[in-house]
Write a structure and sequence with these properties.
This protein has about 400 residues and is of the alpha/beta class. Helices cover about 30% and strands about 25% of the residues. It has 2 domains: about 90 residues, Urease, subunit C, domain 1, CATH 2.30.40.10; about 290 residues, Alpha-Beta Barrel (TIM Barrel), CATH 3.20.20. Helix 2 packs across helix 3 and helix 6 runs parallel beside helix 7.
């Protein structure tokens, strides 16, 4: 095994240590300056703060026009308007493209992201081509970032005959999850959409990740349906709700009622913490054992011109949205973007500890809280035991 020693780093801002890696795993974390074994390759960490690789649990890397001339935002407001605008304009912009998708994944690597769950459009216009594009882009970067694919029916499932078959084909071809979107307001038939998605998931042994934009009681009704269907299918811990804006809009009593149902089903949560959304009851979710992960959502696409691929900035947005100020809370937010998110990428452990995948990010920061509020450049990134970024230059 090729052994690499990352010397003189401060894991989570603690005492100086060396992180010893063999192939793609961390095998030991020892005090800095400990005797090295023969044949080890050493990389000087310069006393920097060390974090586990950032894990982006909700992205849309196939949609981006990154690296192309600026595209003005357009389309009618709301989910339906943006879907229609994207469908009308994407072909003329060459979306999806390997070049733009590779560029976005490269920005993830630059900012220290070593794993991403990305939703990839599957519809009657693009078929499964978006999944092929994403896989080609990941390969172009030497798989420096782990990419898990959600086959995503952005334009609806039941209202577009043939999409369910495409989702079935995507699951058979290796997508880790099948997606859904607003079963009530997009398909206007939540039971049929959920039955179709769960049937595919059960037959192919994949997970489910459902976009839910609907607010208030309409959203809460669908959350309860998703939880009930999850329990019936025996898929505890394998279903994620993305966005789920309704949860933050409910009264405290109703919120607690819905949370209990979601926690019983082991529903996970993915959020990009958008600025005008209602804060989530994230502490209550964590207390009930519900996984919460952070994602960049779309980056410079036909939905929004915003985004730079830095998940640490999303974590900062989460902290601001929830009015967090104390050191323990700020530390917890960074853990949401790193060690707490391992399960979304199928990792039993994701931390700076023996047995975990060798994903390490170094930053010039005093401590974790300083890193969060300043979001400094990532000085060095190791992914799967390989040096993939140094001083802002992507090396793969």
């Amino acid at each position: 095994m090729a052994t690499v020693r990352l010397t003189n780093v401060r894991p989570w801002g603690g005492a100086a240590a060396d992180v010893v890696m063999a192939d793609d795993r961390i095998v030991d974390v020892v005090p800095a300056g400990s005797a090295a074994s023969d044949g080890e390759t050493t990389i000087d960490g310069g006393g920097r703060l060390a974090l586990p690789g950032l894990l982006n649990v909700h992205a849309h890397v196939d949609k981006s026009w990154w690296g192309r001339p600026w595209v003005p935002a357009g389309g009618a407001p709301g989910t339906a308007g943006r879907i229609a605008h994207e469908r009308a304009e994407r072909d003329a912009l060459g979306i999806p493209s390997v070049e733009s998708t590779t560029a976005v994944l490269g920005e993830f690597v630059r900012h220290g992201t070593t794993g991403v769950r990305t939703h990839v459009d599957v519809d009657l216009g693009v078929g499964l081509r978006g999944i092929e594009v994403v896989r080609a882009a990941a390969a172009a970067l030497g798989d420096a970032v782990q990419v898990d694919v959600v086959a995503f029916p952005q334009d609806g499932v039941m209202r577009r005959p043939g999409v369910l078959d495409l989702l079935d084909q995507a699951a058979a071809a290796g997508a880790t999850h099948v997606g859904g979107i607003d079963p009530a307001s997009i398909d206007r038939d939540p039971v049929r959409q959920l039955d179709g998605l769960f049937d595919i998931a059960e037959r192919h042994g994949v997970g489910i990740d459902i976009h839910l934009h609907d607010g208030g009681e309409l959203g809460a009704f669908q959350l309860e349906l998703i939880a009930e269907r999850t329990l019936r299918a025996g898929m505890h811990g394998r279903v994620t709700v993305s966005h789920g804006f309704a949860l933050g809009e409910l009264s405290p009593a109703r919120q607690a009622e819905v949370l209990d149902v979601l926690a019983e089903a082991g529903i996970g949560w993915a959020t990009a913490a958008p600025v005008r959304s209602a804060p989530l009851p994230w502490r209550e979710m964590r207390e009930r054992g519900m996984p919460i992960g952070l994602g960049t959502d779309g980056i410079r696409d036909l939905w929004s011109p915003f985004g730079d691929g830095d998940l640490l900035r999303v974590a900062l947005g989460f902290a601001r949205l929830h009015a967090l100020r104390t050191d323990p809370d700020l530390l917890d937010v960074v853990r949401l973007a790193t060690s707490h998110a391992g399960g979304y990428l199928g990792r039993a452990a994701h931390d700076l500890s023996p047995g975990a995948r060798a994903d390490v990010v170094l930053l010039d920061a005093e401590n974790v809280q300083d890193a969060l509020v300043r979001c400094p450049p990532r000085a060095l990134v190791v992914a799967g035991g390989r040096l993939v970024q140094r001083d802002g230059e992507v090396l793969v």
